[in-house]
Amino acid sequence: MRLNTAAVAALAAFAAPAPALAAARPNIIVVLTDDQDAQMNSIDYMPLLQKHLVDQGTTFTKHYCTIAICCPSRVNLWTGQLAHNTNVTDVSPPYGGYPKFVTEGYSDRHLAVWMQESGYNTYYVGKLFNHHSLSNYDKPHVRGFTGSDFLLDPTTYQYWNFSTTHNGAPPVNYDGVYSPDFTAERVYEFLDEAAEDSEKPFFLVAAPIAPHGNFQLSPKLEAGPPQVAPRHQHLFNDYEIPRTPNFNPETPSGVDWIARLPRLDDTVLAYNDEFQRQRLRSLQAVDEMVEGVVARLEASGQLDNTYIFYTADNGYHISQHRLNPGKECSFETDINVPLLVRGPGVPAGLVKDSVVSSHTDLAPTIMHLAGNPLRADFDGQPIAVHDASNTGPEHVGTEFWGHAFPEGKYGSYVAAAGHLEAYYGLSPADYQADTQMARPAPVNNTYKGLRVVGAEYNLYYAVWCTNDRQLYDMRKDPFQVDNLLDSKKMTATAGPASTLLGRDLATVADRLDALILIMKSCKGNACVEPWRRIHPHGDVHSLSAALAPKYDAFYAQQPKVSFTSCKPGYLREVEGPQHAHVFSGGALDTMREQMHMVDPNWSLWT
After folding, report:
1. Known catalytic residues?
2. 3-oxoalanine (Cys) occurs at which residues (predicted)?
3. pLDDT at 442 over 60
4. Is 272 in a helix, a strand, or coil?
């Protein structure tokens, strides 16, 4: 892709050294949990995290994963590229997992490699990617790390019986050891090792499996709640999942298969409450690890020159929208994840609730803080972690392909069997259907989504592979129970007669659809400045500017986001139009529009 001069200038500005850097290059630590929710306020139940990161750093309340499933989200995070560009879109082959990461050429193109090449010691402990296993951990060995201890499939999600490879050595099994505690101990060892090399800064990732469910394959497949260290088992006995408007609602919410879900009965709700209690209990070991990390940094004199990031690969739902435990959906529960940042120059005790950021931005942010130049193929930009203002980017795109897998004993493994068979290498005979698993797993959960947050609006818009559409005004409907584009409601009112942001609903939806049209296949700076792909003169940088009445006819004629079929991975040919029309403002722009009439896929920007 060719970048315009403004894009090149922006990249050059981002590549400049961070103003708050100390004389010595900073250390950087990332704590990456697995499936930790933000919408159910899980960090409120982590007092040590509150003490050391919330109170001493900045909380970003509108931080998102761009794809709500483990492996693709982690690849997005460590490469700074969206899933439609990495082409790692699932947890297992052929569309995802560690083998896909390797075949797509990312073994030598990820954050740890770049940090190591720039002079950092690099360490990783815990879960890296799905399908990184006992049989392929050395095909090839993960590159870019000075020291590592990776959890390996098929025991990654077993809390008391797991295997790891230490610095690439043959795997060792640990039976009767609690996995999050093991992760913490290895992290402390690598911190000690890093402190001994005073000539080099370090980059360290701590990736415990908590609060992911405990998955066991033998003698029977089980995907239940996480298991807990005995010292934490007594906690939170009175906890209940917040009974928000989207909690097991009387009226179905969402579209497609979600709209057809029956209400959960009292037995299931009680089970789900305990499931979430176990999730909170499992996080207590992570909470203790955070304090252990801070204590060791303080003891070695490195705390004041270390950035600590705390986040999760994806969010989680449990009873919201009538859903059994799981992720992968387009709701805020699944895509909104914690992001806490502490470090030199980062404001303490600050909450940023109007700045939109995503996992695509984390690799650029870490590279920037380390004083490294940014890559032209980054799809994100550095997060302004030193800025105390509450303004920033207003959009983030989300995407998903394939199945949504329900967890817990009231989910269904039967319909998901093909998906799990590919992941675990099991035969259909290995699946034992519980008599209480009455609801089938959804056949397909593919969608393109968009979060837009500005001074005047807080919106979510999505288009599914079934061509169903969702639009939520989250200022009035923060729990996403009233889809403004519900086809039944629109039929009853003879069309989208309601208004939003002072304009009729269709007018607003036209703009959002055009923005997704750019975001769903964007690369590089197009993902950062999507409006410029439609308005190249630079006079539109936000939804509010795009809503000017003079653009109404133009947006009404834009190609619409659509799918010809639902597929389990990223197959561009079924994902409809790929390019938006460019707004005319002169002879060149008239030529652009004429070219689009001849070839809708023509673009000046490719």
Report:
1. 70
2. 70
3. no
4. helix
